[in-house]
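Slide 14.
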Amino acid sequence: MNGPTIGIDFGGTGTKAALVSVDSGELLTERFRIPTPHPATPESMVPVMAELIQSAGKSTAVGITIPSVVQRGVVLTAANIDDSWIGVDAAEFFSSELDRQVVVVNDADAAGIAEMRFGAGRGCDGVVIVLTLGTGIGSAVFVDGILVPNTELGHLEFRGADAEKYAAASVRVRKDLSWKKWGHRVNRYFQMVEELFTPTLFIIGGGVSKKAHKYLKYIDVRAEVRPAMLRNKAGVVGAAMAAYESTQA
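Slide 15: predicted structure.
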């Protein structure tokens, strides 16, 4: 048995945390949530993180997702957070401010880690692509269970713009598309990704994963397509797993 770890999912509207069993992926506490401040600068997020850690319980390691490209703990982009994050070593910053070891990981990568370990991708080899369909499209790519970080496949060009502007779940709502019309959009996007990467499995994450029966029938690709299993707790679980695994390296 391994000790529990705190996972924190830093989102554009809300930041969530829980104590996680790294053996089972189960949440050992309720999922605590605090509205994300605006602007969500590094300084404004410190008290939020501190309160969530106190609520979640004791743990030496903390994992935090962030909606950006993260390379060796350094934030390189800023999506739904303030531009002041760009260039910040978030892992070092939070470790210093919170007085404990903190690991920072891209939010879609964290969701993918959780799905591969405890969810729809468990035991799957080959190329597995997790696509989170929400406000935008996040992605996590795995090769024989190993993460290829920061893939950002939602920003692939499709019809002259970012693919997420065509096939994200928010587009269905904003344009009032039927599930069929939106499903065909998702299908065209998946076909493009399949042509580029030839995955054996697609996993669909994000809030729409629980409504997969409404659109999966319109997705026609060679790869198997599965809805995510962990849904809205995937980011928290994946953040905790990233933190735990960093202590084992």
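Speaker note: The longest strand covers residues 14-20.
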